[in-house]
């Protein structure tokens, strides 16, 4: 008989919905109410039963598991942030951390839909538009996407936006391109931001809801990504796309300020996503260190391995603490763009360190997708850049603390 291969230990996450996360070293989850903890327990059950078993294969296949939408809908949480009263930002933060702890791509899908797309309609829509689109989106019967970034416009997309919107009677004609638009390959509704060509508008950027199947709208999947592969990112071409005036988001300021409101919210959520990735990376490394033996004993007993683990735990704890406090300030109405930018910059930077140390501890086994860490390591690279790069967030905070803008136009 052929000799069998040795069975090596695999890093594992604890998927018990009742077990406290070992990465929550200072017990921040105790700040949640009993009802919020019960809701998160349902989320953890769903993630363990339906998401965790499929994400490795989906990541390698570069596909989004469409069956997960039904499971997310059953949780009945997609509209929680827009209810009356809305769910606490603290609870929603923990929700994003839980999802990201299992898979960052799935959290990105959920965040684009609930945060960027639904958030745009909530912030910029009229009462009639909210009533038309938000309920079916909350039930996840219609999935949303958010079309802001362009091929030539990332950090300066607001000032350099090339996509145009031209009024023609009771319609608007949209022309241009968007890039890196998550969910766009299958979204039912895409919020498109475009510059008004009317000279009297003075370059105002406006939001429009474009329905799938609208003539002139083309979405093309971006192939060959090495990060967030489950996210179906797309290039969007808008060629004389006509939308009625009723599809222009005109209930807020009617300008890019509405998008700014949304981005502040989602930037805070992105910080929680970075926390979730760090929790997973730390927990995977910790579990592996207790089972992997070298020199006759588990590597958990070596000083250098403990040093890595403690540095990871410090990063997770500091990031979690900042994310919690930022959410509390937002719940109190005292949070600012600068607060969210500082937290995003800090958490994303610490995440990059944490996933690298986790991969280092697991060694060569850390580059195998089935061992988990490789997926988080790769996905962290995209998360480090989206929702505001580190450099742009430092400029937002720098302007706030010094009173001097370092932005260059």
UniProtKB/TrEMBL annotation:
Entry protein name: Glutaryl-CoA dehydrogenase
Family: Belongs to the acyl-CoA dehydrogenase family.
Acyl-CoA dehydrogenase/oxidase N-terminal domain ranges (all copies): 33-141
Chain ranges of the Acyl-CoA oxidase/dehydrogenase middle domain: 145-241
Natural source organism: Pseudonocardia sediminis
GO BP terms, alphabetized: fatty acid beta-oxidation
Boundaries of every Acyl-CoA dehydrogenase/oxidase C-terminal domain copy: 259-401
Entry coiled-coil feature ranges: none
A single MF term (Gene Ontology): flavin adenine dinucleotide binding
Cofactor(s) the record lists: FAD
Claim: Oxidoreductase is one of the keywords in the record: yes
Gene3D superfamilies: Acyl-CoA dehydrogenase/oxidase, N-terminal domain (1.10.540.10), Butyryl-CoA Dehydrogenase, subunit A, domain 2 (2.40.110.10), Butyryl-CoA Dehydrogenase, subunit A, domain 3 (1.20.140.10)
Pfam families (alphabetical): Acyl-CoA_dh_1, Acyl-CoA_dh_M, Acyl-CoA_dh_N
Superkingdom as given in the UniProt entry: Bacteria
PROSITE patterns per the UniProt record, alphabetical: ACYL_COA_DH_1
Assigned keywords, A-Z: FAD, Flavoprotein, Oxidoreductase
UniProt keyword Flavoprotein present: yes
């Amino acid at each position: 008989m052929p000799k069998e291969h040795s069975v090596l230990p695999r890093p594992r996450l604890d998927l018990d919905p009742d077990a406290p996360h070992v990465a929550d070293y200072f017990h921040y989850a105790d700040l949640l109410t009993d009802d919020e903890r019960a809701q998160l327990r349902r989320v953890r059950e769903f993630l363990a039963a339906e998401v965790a078993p499929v994400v490795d294969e989906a990541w390698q296949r570069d596909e989004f598991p469409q069956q997960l939408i039904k499971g997310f809908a059953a949780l009945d949480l997609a509209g929680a942030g827009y209810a009356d009263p809305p769910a606490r930002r603290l609870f929603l933060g923990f929700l994003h951390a839980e999802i990201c702890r299992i898979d960052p791509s799935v959290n990105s899908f959920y965040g684009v839909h609930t945060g960027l797309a639904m958030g745009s309609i909530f912030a910029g829509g009229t009462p009639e538009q909210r009533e038309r689109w938000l309920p079916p989106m909350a039930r996840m019967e219609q999935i949303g996407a958010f079309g802001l970034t362009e091929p030539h416009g990332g950090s300066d997309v607001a000032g350099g936006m090339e996509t145009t919107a031209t009024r023609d009677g009771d319609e608007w004609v949209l022309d241009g391109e968007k890039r890196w638009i998550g969910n766009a390959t299958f979204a039912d509704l895409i919020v498109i931001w475009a510059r008004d060509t009317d000279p009297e508008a003075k370059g105002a950027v406006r939001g429009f809801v474009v329905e799938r199947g609208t003539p002139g709208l083309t979405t093309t999947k971006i192939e060959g990504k090495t990060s967030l592969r489950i996210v179906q990112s797309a290039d969007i071409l808008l060629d004389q796309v006509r939308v009625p005036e009723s599809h222009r988001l005109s209930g807020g300021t009617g300008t890019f300020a509405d998008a700014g409101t949304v981005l502040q919210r989602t930037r805070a959520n992105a910080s929680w996503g970075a926390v979730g990735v760090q929790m997973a990376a730390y927990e995977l490394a910790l579990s592996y260190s207790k089972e992997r033996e070298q020199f006759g004993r588990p590597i958990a007993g070596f000083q250098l391995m403990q040093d890595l683990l403690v540095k990871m735990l410090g990063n997770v704890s500091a990031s979690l603490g900042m994310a919690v406090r930022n959410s509390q300030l937002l719940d109190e109405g005292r949070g600012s763009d600068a607060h969210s930018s500082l937290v995003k910059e800090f958490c994303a930077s610490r995440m990059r360190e944490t996933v690298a140390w986790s991969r280092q501890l697991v060694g060569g086994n850390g580059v195998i997708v089935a061992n988990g860490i490789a997926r988080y390591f790769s996905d962290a690279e995209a998360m480090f850049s989206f929702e505001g790069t580190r450099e742009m967030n430092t400029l937002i905070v720098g302007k706030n603390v010094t009173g001097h803008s370092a932005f260059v136009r």
